[in-house]
Structure formats: C-alpha cells, structure tokens
Write a structure and sequence with these properties.
The chain has two domains: about 150 residues, Alpha-Beta Complex (Aspartate Aminotransferase, domain 1), CATH 3.90.1150; about 240 residues, 3-Layer(aba) Sandwich (Aspartate Aminotransferase, domain 2), CATH 3.40.640. The chain is built from eleven helices and 16 strands. The strands form four sheets. Strands 2-10-9-6-5-3-4 form a seven-stranded mixed sheet, with helices on both faces. Helix 6 links the parallel strand 5 and strand 6. Helix 1 runs antiparallel to helix 8 and helix 3 packs across helix 7. The protein is globular.
Length: about 450
C-alpha cells in the first residue's frame, strides 16, 4: 500500500481522461479475445501445514481435545501473541466477534451509551454493541486509506459517547496518534479492531497496543487462522480480568491479573474459550506471520507499481508512518470515468475473464444495513430490551459522503502471497487491458 499525507477528498466530476497511455486495440477476453494472463492464479501458501496437523494429532492420540484451564499451548500462544501486539496480556477466544463483545463489556458499555465506529467495516465491529445495550454511531472514512476519519469522529462525540472502535481495515493502520489523542481528550475508551491486521504497525508501534483493548480475528480467511478463533490483547490488568470473568470459567480463580473478582472458578455465563485444535492451528500461522506479511506487502507493491499511471484503478494508500499487516485483500479504487463509464460489476466480470482473481468489494456501509436501522429487539431479553423504544435505534445518517461514494468504487483482488512476481505483474497488465479496452468500447453487448 502506498503512502499519503493528504486528507480525504472526494472526486465528484467525471473525467474524460483515457485509461492510460497507449490505448490497446486488443480484443477483451469476455468478447472472444485471448486472455491477458497466461499464468493461472494458484496460491501456494497454505494456512494449514503438516506440522500443525501433527501437533493436533499429538493431543488427539492422547484423547485430549480441550484445555479448559488454559496453559500449555494455549498459554504459550497467548504469550507470543501479546509479544506480537506489544501488550502485557492476551486472552484467546472462540472468535473475533467474541473478542469485540468482551472488549465492549469490559470497558463498561451499557444502555444509553454510544460507541463511535466506522460505517465501512464488517458488521461484527458494531453488532456486539447491541448486546451491551449501547448504540453504534457511524463515522465517515478517509477516502485514501479507507480507515476512520479522525475529524469526523471527533465531530460526532456527544455527552453519551463512551468509547471509540477504530478498525484497521484490510490490514491498513488507522491514524492512531490522532485517534488516541482524541480518546484521551474526551476520556473515552479506545478499542482497536485489528481483525485484518496482525503485524501491522503505526509509528513503529503494533496495532492493538494503542487502545485499551485490541481485538483480532483468527477466522479461516485471516492471516493467522484457527478456522474459527479470536484473541484480545491489553496491558490493563483490570480489563483483562473483566474479559476473563465474562466468558472463561475454569480460569477465573487462577488467571486474574488484578484479582478484580471473587467468583471462584465461575464466569458470567458466556463461554468464549477457544477449541484447543484451533489454537494449535493458529500457532502455526503466528510463527509464519512475518513471512506472510513480507510476501503480501511485496506483491501489493508490485501490483501498485505496475498500475501506476492507470487512472481507472487506484491502489489504497497508507499513512507514511505505518506498515500494513495481514492485508486481507488487495483493494483498488475503480474510477469508472476513466474506463468508458463501465459499471463496476461489468469491469470486474471482464477482468475475471482475463484471469484476474478480482471481485466487487462485498462490504456495504453499515449505516444503510437493515440490522442497524429496521430491526426491533424489544421482544428480546437482556440488554436488547433497551431497544423497545424504536427511537433508540440508530438512524442512517445522510452525511457520510465519503463512505457512500467510495463504497461504490472498491474492488478487491485476492491477496496473493506465495505466487511468482510475474503472475502479479500479469494481473496488473490484465487490469490495464480491461481499463484501456473499456475506454474504447461503446456497446457493452457487442464489445465494439
């Protein structure tokens, strides 16, 4: 990801510029021409290695499939993950969503409280706020980095605001120095959703260490995968104890760091501990994370360099003092006005025909999703009962202009890890071919 020091801007006027110098007359594959990619995309990076399976087998042969008291490989994994995140403590979970719910509960989110969260993110960044009785308040994003806009964030703070959730979307670090300053200034809890970004840093400091709690997903598609798992990190012993008491019975009597509760070996009724086999699998991914990050950074840089001068496709930028990690997808901003005003879906379909592993970005702005606008929770129990008054439901704001526009432009290329540099270059050349061809085609049905 390239670097930028500029603030978010939105281009509103279509351009008549071409898709790049040297317009091609080569027929697009979708219209019967030869595919631009002569190499077939095949990812040779494996999330599950033989050594990982042997570790699982070692415990399976001994008829051990859970470690409810922690310790052993779970304890070692937590120690190593805390080192990665630059924190004192780490607590493994059964999902990144569980980690986020634990974080919101731990910092005290309750009925009437508001949590600021970007609208451009996976729904699980915001949905656990409902379980606490709180209200997600959606913020706009920086158009260059796709991360939360600090200025917009601060403008939405009210007397009801209790916390900020910042998301390092696609592994791209947010502007953490400014966001941490805002949190301190307004006495707000700061939670980092680092699900996409293990190993990412901002100003040489790991993501997850800037906030009160950092939350990571270890789901199947993530850089560190346990199939289904997650982990939360913190340097605050009381917050660690809060998370432990919420969902980790059998560890509450022995593992508390600040002796915050006296609840014997019980918990508050949830069961968020992970499966032993998931942690054994994730431990292998954690060992290989530096290599994965090195390869993905290199390949995204190759793709970005090869697309330089192609105005139809803009790589997402990073702040100059940040290093992305995880990089869950190679994200590009598609400018239709530089590609014959082709709809994004048509452009992607043509690129797939050329052999590019690309798709329309599947994230939709959360402030437009029914879950956050139309759902009625009044018949539910617990904290959800606070939503019986429909006026407490967050309304879709009309002023998230950057989010609205950018979300209509994004396309995602599968994150290429263990592939040849030539294949990455061919992907870029194929995307250029489609952009140039689209700029010359008048009729999408015939390709002429």
């Amino acid at each position: 990801m390239t670097t930028s020091t500029t603030t978010a801007t939105v281009e509103t006027q279509p351009s008549t510029a071409s898709a790049g110098s040297g317009l091609t007359t080569e027929r697009l594959a979708i219209y019967g021409g030869p595919a631009a990619m002569t190499r077939k995309y095949r990812e040779r990076w494996r999330k599950i290695r033989t050594w990982d399976m042997l570790q699982i087998l070692w415990y399976a042969i001994r008829d051990v499939n859970t470690l409810p008291t922690g310790g052993g490989p779970i304890g070692r994994f937590e120690q190593r993950f805390a080192q990665l995140a630059g924190t004192k403590y780490a607590l493994s979970m059964n999902s990144g969503t569980a980690a986020l719910h634990s974080a919101y509960m731990s910092v005290g989110i309750g009925p009437g409280d508001e949590v600021l969260v970007p609208s451009y993110t996976f729904f699980a960044s915001a949905a656990p706020i409902f379980q606490c009785g709180g209200t997600p308040v959606f913020c706009d994003i920086d158009s260059h980095t796709l991360t939360i806009d600090p200025d917009d964030l601060e403008a939405r703070i009210t007397t009801r605001t209790k916390a900020i959730c910042v998301v390092h979307i696609w592994g791209n670090p947010a502007r953490m120095d400014r966001i941490a300053e805002i949190a301190r200034k307004h006495n707000l809890a700061l939670i980092e959703d680092c699900s996409h970004g293990p190993g990412a840093t901002f100003q040489d400091r790991p993501v997850g260490s800037w906030g009160d709690i950092g939350c990571f997903s270890l789901q199947g598609t993530k850089a560190i995968s346990g199939g289904e798992a997650g982990i939360a990190v913190t340097s605050n012993p009381t917050l660690y104890d809060h998370m432990l008491a919420l969902g980790h019975f059998n560890r509450t009597a022995t593992d508390q760091q600040n002796r915050t509760f006296d609840i014997e070996n019980l918990s508050l009724g949830l069961k968020y501990r992970p499966h032993l086999f998931a942690i054994l699998m994730a431990a292998g991914g954690l060992r290989r994370l530096p290599e994965l990050n090195r390869l993905r950074r290199k390949n995204y840089e190759i793709l970005s360099t090869e697309l330089a001068g192609c105005p139809a496709l803009e790589p997402i930028e990073s702040y100059p003092d940040s290093i992305p990690g995880g990089i869950l997808a190679f994200v590009l901003k598609y400018r239709a006005e530089h590609a014959g005003n082709w709809p994004r879906g048509a452009f992607v379909k043509a690129a797939v025909a050329e052999g590019v592993p690309v798709s329309v970005d599947y994230y939709r702005p959360l402030h437009r999703r029914a879950l956050f606008n139309l759902a009625s929770f009044g018949n539910y129990g617990g904290a959800l009962r606070s939503y019986s008054d429909r006026q407490q439901q967050p309304a879709a704001p009309d002023d998230l202009t950057t989010t609205e526009e950018v979300c209509q432009q994004l396309v995602t290329v599968t994150p290429m890890t263990k592939v040849s540099p030539d294949l990455v270059r061919q992907c870029a050349q194929a995307l250029r071919k489609v952009a140039n061809g689209a700029a010359q085609i008048k009729d999408l049905r015939t390709g002429r």
